[in-house]
Amino acid sequence: MNILWIQNGRVIDPANKRDAISDLYAVDGQIVDSLSEAQQAAATVVDAKGLVVAPGLVDIHVHFRDPGQTHKEDIRSGTEAAAAGGFTSVVCMPNTGPVCDNAGTIQRIMDKVARAAVIRVYPTGCLTVGMQGEQLAPTGQLKKAGVVAMTDDGKCVQSNEIMRRAVEYAQMFDLPIMDHCQDASLTEGAMMNEGEWSLRLGLQGWPKAAEDIIVARNVILAELTGAHIHMQHISSARSVDLLRRAIDRGVSVSGEASPHHIEFTDADLHDYDTVFKMNPPLRTDADRLALIEGLVDGTLSCIATDHAPHSPTEKDQEFDYAPFGVIGLENSLASCLTTLYHGKHLGLSEVIALMTHKGAEVCKLDAGTLSVGAAADICLFDPDEEWTVDSNKFFSKSRNCPWHGKTLKGVVKATYVGGEQVFDGSSITV
After folding, report:
1. Torsions phi, psi of 224, nearest 5?
2. How is the cofactor bound (predicted)?
């Protein structure tokens, strides 16, 4: 019998409105409300005095590049990075090589997960065949193969007719739809946010309207079909407003913010550093503050990293040729604590909620809580300890981290999956 007894920690479980100094117990991988005397004698005891004991973090938007681009990341390195960041459940995007538009590719990924993953990994399926936006993918087969959501993330379905049918079909199989909101006709050749800094740097601008138009399209389609559409990595103040107005009138839509979009702005590209090149691009400070406001008032339902690894040689080239994307799993908790909690925008429980059960609810995952009977997926962290990010020490294979060299507050001390420790504060333990 595997018995875990975490003592003296500040147990914060936002889903159950729990926030108190207390003990937490797990038996054979599940949370229990107490231990017998015999179980106490046999338990592995962890003293969490001074630490927060929270549900394992949940990220519904990661790229592990497996299969197809494993020189950037693979299931093992990606899940090690996630565990080091306090994550116990992640949802992988389908833009692999080949893309996840058939049951065979999903099975290949799940076989690799069973062999190599140190945390829980959930796959998504493509909305369209080949992510080309022209023909619907076999949603029923993908659902049977185990996908938890449908998305063409990395691309956006440009045809409103195809998107409508994809949404209706996914709804038939009770699968959430997640969309990368980008009107491609407005972003061809675009490198960064359209505005003062794109003019200063001489780089082609990426208008916010490219995102806003698709968010508006999806609001209309959600209202028309009754399906739930989740907007990925929102970056624009107007998109936040569109979502807020839609939610207020009862439309079934939601959105996520990424840690980099709530901390950095387009001004951070002042020296052409490609580590700050991402899709969607960093926007203005007004947009950044609007995203934070959206998290505070509930318009944006969760935080997701959009962990997008690239090799150093790919990023180390002229700005126009470097790929879009940043990594963030190993420092995202610290970044969000620094920006939102220590920045006095949100309470500690509210930040944890955005990084646990609220994301899990979007994809209908049984994760993100410390309820009795739930899986003993747990994160222990010190919310006040400072550290300086050194991406060269990351478990991820890639180093394209915009926080490299920055001092943040919040250190993960241990991560448990099913009651078994997978990260001890410095190393992977499985």
Report:
1. -70, -45
2. Binds 2 Zn(2+) ions per subunit.
Residue 149 burial class via C-beta count within 10 angstroms: exposed 0-12, middle 13-18, buried 19 and up: buried
* Residue whose structure tokens are 């833009």: 95
**In this structure, are strands 420-423 and 407-417 parallel, antiparallel, or unpaired?**
antiparallel
Q: Are 85 and 332 in contact (CB under 8 A)?
A: yes
Q: pLDDT category, 63, cuts 50, 70, 90?
A: very high
Within 13 Å, how many C-alpha atoms sit on residue 259's CB side?
30
Work out the number of other CB atoms within 10 angstroms of the CB of residue 356.
Answer: 32
Residue partners of 179: CB distance under 8 A and separation at least 6: 151, 152, 153, 156, 157, 163, 214, 218, 229, 230, 231, 232
Q: Report the pLDDT value the prediction gives residue 1, as an integer from 0 to 100.
A: 84
> Going by DSSP bridges, is the β-strand pair 87-92/120-123 parallel, antiparallel, or unpaired?
parallel
Cβ neighbors of 424 (< 8 A, separation 6 or more) are 414
* 116: confidence class by pLDDT, cuts 50, 70, 90: very high
Q: How do residues 269-306 score in pLDDT, each as one tens digit? A: 999 999 999 999 999 999 999 999 999 999 999 999 99
Q: Is 306 a catalytic residue?
A: yes
Number of other residues whose CB lies within 10 A of the CB of residue 125 = 29
Q: Which residue positions form the known binding site for substrate? A: 63-65, 95, 279, 310, 324-325
Nearest to 299 by CA among 234, 365, 223: 234
Average pLDDT rounded to a whole number, residues 219-243: 97
Q: Where are the beta strands (DSSP E) in 127-217?
A: 177-179, 192-193, 205-206
| pLDDT confidence of residue 78 | 98
What is the secondary structure of 303-358 as a DSSP string?
A: E---B----HHHHSS-TTTSPP----TTTHHHHHIIIIITTTSS-HHHHHHHTTHH
Q: Give the residue ranges of the annotated binding site for Zn(2+).
A: 61, 63, 153, 180, 233, 306
Query: pLDDT at residue 124 above 90?
Result: yes
Q: Which of 306, 377, 382, 424 is catalytic?
A: 306
β-pairing, 3-13 vs 378-388, is unpaired
Q: With 0.85 as the threshold, say if the pTM is over it.
A: yes
| Distance from C-alpha of 59 to C-alpha of 89, rounded to nearest angstrom | 6
